[in-house]
Amino acid sequence: MNARRVVITGIGALTPLGNTVEEYWSNLEKGVSGAAPITKFDASKFKTQFACEVKDFVATDYIDRKEVRKMDLVSQYGVAVAKQAIEDSEMDLDAVNKERFGVIWGSGIGGLKSFQDEVSSFATGDGTPRFNPFFIPKMIPDLIPGHISMTWGLKGPNFTTVSACASATNAMVDAFNYIRFGMADLFVTGGSEAAVCEAGIGGFNALRALSTRNDDAATASRPFDGSRDGFVLGEGAGAFIFEELEHAKARGAKIYGEVIGGGMTADAYHMTAPHPEGEGSSRVMAEAMKDAGIEPKDVDYINVHGTSTPLGDIGEVNAIKKVFGEDAYDLNISSTKSMTGHLLGAAGAVEALACLLALNKGVIPPTINNTTPDEKLDPKLNCTFNEAQKRDVNIALSNTFGFGGHNFSMVFKKYAE
């Protein structure tokens, strides 16, 4: 089968660094931290009292007031960024075949706050089962693309991928494959997450996964730093319009870049820990590059999973060295989680957007908060510490890995005829 080319024609962002693509990129480039004390609930009794929250989000700016009450925040975020991406694409929705326009979305947890609130209300009540009629629809993650499809009448393939922190990249790889193999022409794809709540913070605290640097939240997310002590929980969403190239050209669409490859592997090792030798992550990068038809020397930038955990960061860069060999030293590597925190199932979307913008802007966003060398990190690697670096980026690779050993990589290329 001759694979069709897939391009990106619309983008949207709702992040701890800003509620538009422009704000997100500006703060990435400046090296701004999105971490601050939690405002969504009283976190004073929790081991971790800060997070990377979305600021000043008003759902009714994007969604009818009557519909807002039917949605958990995770769906509100999803519909909001989908609206941004669709509007950015300048698409005439009346002129496209909506039966070939789908939505594939990623969310690792779904409506956690709705689940927490309903169960808490029942547990503290008199035992009478009084549940919100929208409880189940607000909780289940597949309602996010459901709401997106219903809002714009999109009747193509529609589902949610749930692969922990790799969920959004999983969704985007699926959308890429559906288009290139002829099963659809367009997708809204990406991911959203809204787990900054008591259950989210408490659950990850119980796993000892979160930083507890409560005295200095802004510097707590510090990938590759010798003093890192865990990740910082984030929230938000990112969205893309993936479109078949000839379809995009026929309507005169602006093109941000091209999707040229994707890889998928499993560690088959541990419930929460990465493989100590980066076995799955090295294979997934190799598979993504093979799928894209490129060599390691062709890659300019890798946006790493880089969560700021003691095991994960070093395992990933060692996997890069294994796959790229000497070419690893010619790469720029950075973890934008140092600024956004970890958006869990939405991470792959906002990080893919960072790759796409790096292609368009000729700038590598930094890995901030690096102050203490890690003796296990090869000092010859360019991890783009603390300040953005200018570079002509032709090809960028985005890594996302999830609990359960799920590994995904995507390859993006500057568009050329």
TrEMBL record:
<dbReference type="GO" id="GO:0004315">
    <property type="term" value="F:3-oxoacyl-[acyl-carrier-protein] synthase activity"/>
</dbReference>
<feature type="active site" description="For beta-ketoacyl synthase activity">
    <location>
        <position position="165"/>
    </location>
</feature>
<dbReference type="InterPro" id="IPR017568">
    <property type="entry name" value="3-oxoacyl-ACP_synth-2"/>
</dbReference>
<keyword id="KW-0444">Lipid biosynthesis</keyword>
<dbReference type="GO" id="GO:0005829">
    <property type="term" value="C:cytosol"/>
</dbReference>
<dbReference type="Pfam" id="PF02801">
    <property type="entry name" value="Ketoacyl-synt_C"/>
</dbReference>
<keyword id="KW-0275">Fatty acid biosynthesis</keyword>
<dbReference type="InterPro" id="IPR014030">
    <property type="entry name" value="Ketoacyl_synth_N"/>
</dbReference>
<keyword id="KW-0443">Lipid metabolism</keyword>
<keyword id="KW-0808">Transferase</keyword>
<dbReference type="InterPro" id="IPR018201">
    <property type="entry name" value="Ketoacyl_synth_AS"/>
</dbReference>
<keyword id="KW-0012">Acyltransferase</keyword>
<dbReference type="InterPro" id="IPR020841">
    <property type="entry name" value="PKS_Beta-ketoAc_synthase_dom"/>
</dbReference>
<comment type="function">
    <text>Involved in the type II fatty acid elongation cycle. Catalyzes the elongation of a wide range of acyl-ACP by the addition of two carbons from malonyl-ACP to an acyl acceptor. Can efficiently catalyze the conversion of palmitoleoyl-ACP (cis-hexadec-9-enoyl-ACP) to cis-vaccenoyl-ACP (cis-octadec-11-enoyl-ACP), an essential step in the thermal regulation of fatty acid composition.</text>
</comment>
<feature type="domain" description="Ketosynthase family 3 (KS3)">
    <location>
        <begin position="3"/>
        <end position="414"/>
    </location>
</feature>
<dbReference type="InterPro" id="IPR000794">
    <property type="entry name" value="Beta-ketoacyl_synthase"/>
</dbReference>
<dbReference type="InterPro" id="IPR016039">
    <property type="entry name" value="Thiolase-like"/>
</dbReference>
<keyword id="KW-0276">Fatty acid metabolism</keyword>
<comment type="similarity">
    <text>Belongs to the thiolase-like superfamily. Beta-ketoacyl-ACP synthases family.</text>
</comment>
<comment type="pathway">
    <text>Lipid metabolism; fatty acid biosynthesis.</text>
</comment>
<dbReference type="InterPro" id="IPR014031">
    <property type="entry name" value="Ketoacyl_synth_C"/>
</dbReference>
<protein>
    <recommendedName>
        <fullName>3-oxoacyl-[acyl-carrier-protein] synthase 2</fullName>
        <ecNumber>2.3.1.179</ecNumber>
    </recommendedName>
</protein>
<dbReference type="Pfam" id="PF00109">
    <property type="entry name" value="ketoacyl-synt"/>
</dbReference>
<dbReference type="GO" id="GO:0006633">
    <property type="term" value="P:fatty acid biosynthetic process"/>
</dbReference>
